[in-house]
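Consider this one:
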Amino acid sequence: MTSAIPEGAPIMLRHVIPPARFFSQVSNDIIRHPRLSSDAVRLLTWQLSLPLDAEESLSRTATRAGIKKGAFLRAKGQLKAEGYVHEWRQQGVRGLWSTVQLVSSVPLSETEAAAVRGGGAPVVAPAVSSPAAGRPTGRAAGRHPENTPKGNTSHHQEPDAACDEAREAVADLHHLDRRLRVPRGMLPQLATLAAQWLARGHTADGVRTEIRRSLPAPDTCIHSPGGLVRYILREPPTARVASPPPSAPVPRVARMRECEGERHIQPLLFRPAADETRCPACDAAVQDSPAAEPNERR
């Protein structure tokens, strides 16, 4: 039988025995992820192999796995950028701050991660009839609900114009800064966050200005640009409505009028009480004059 392998090509042999115990099921999407380094994959798979009640932090896992500090920070940033790791800072009853870490076997958005943290329904992978050994399957999270929600849900629906503006706010971020090479797979997630900013009164240019303003120093390397942008847009503040500038005070001379009387050698300005055209002195003189016309008397 003639072999189909070209002459000189390496011959790959695999000898795989499925373990009977003490093993973990890991998705091929993680093992073959194009944007996760070997340290990130090792860190994630190690965490997923731990019992659910284990309270081992990511840094402790990195120490046990022999991952140095710099490599650990890069790996952690990659996992956060791809949605496998989420972190929150919280303050205890004694005022001490602590970090809550969530590790997931599937990518989660900020909203989905917050739901899992709050005790919501866990995100499960869809049932398949055969092991996932080929192309990566679609994300298990973010599917539409099977039942249409009842009641007024208009606040969850965005007009096409708002969606386009949100996508515009996070599109081509590398034009803002060459370090912001965001993976295309993260753009829908970032557009959702940008839409929350727009709903609070911000503009697309305002969102991009906030991203640019929050970037680190120009000489600082950004290892996870998508995760950084997601962190910047995580909590949209209410847009400040610019108050109108205070009206300038009217000069006193603008409220004065030149007297039309004939008693003055030079023009005289006076402040009228109503619509009179003569100063009080000229007006009194006219009233006291016997030759004054009746319509000139007040």
Notes: The longest strand covers residues 85-91. DSSP finds ten helices and four strands in the chain.
